[in-house]
Amino acid sequence: MGTKRMTTGFSDQVMSLVKALRTDAPECVASGVVDMATGMLLSYETVDNHPPEVLDLLAGATLDLFQGRTVVMIEDVFKERRGVQSDQHFFQEILVNSENLTHLFVRLNEQQDVVAVVVCRKAVNVGMLFAQVRRVVKEYSL
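RE: above sequence
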């Protein structure tokens, strides 16, 4: 398990990351990767068919969660008060529970503009979800 998964190009790495998240995250029903720089869903796997407009909205919603106007304003205020000059974002992981599902959004460490998204059944053990997703994300440097 400690070996780094190697693939040839960025697109292949993204697809491999999505597949690993889909298979390794407990109770997972969907996984994807969002590029925050372009606002696009780069790749996804799901057990259900979803309308394309819903998938397009997922990328926008992810962007709003992590880098919406108000979130950036809060980050800027704290950076100013703390004297931080970094472009590093404060929000690294966000967990959202809906009526039937749990959604985990995790920013990749090396690529702050790339967010992995995992959707699981609500019965998921959240601790195991975080542990597995963090492990998989750590294996991939995009």
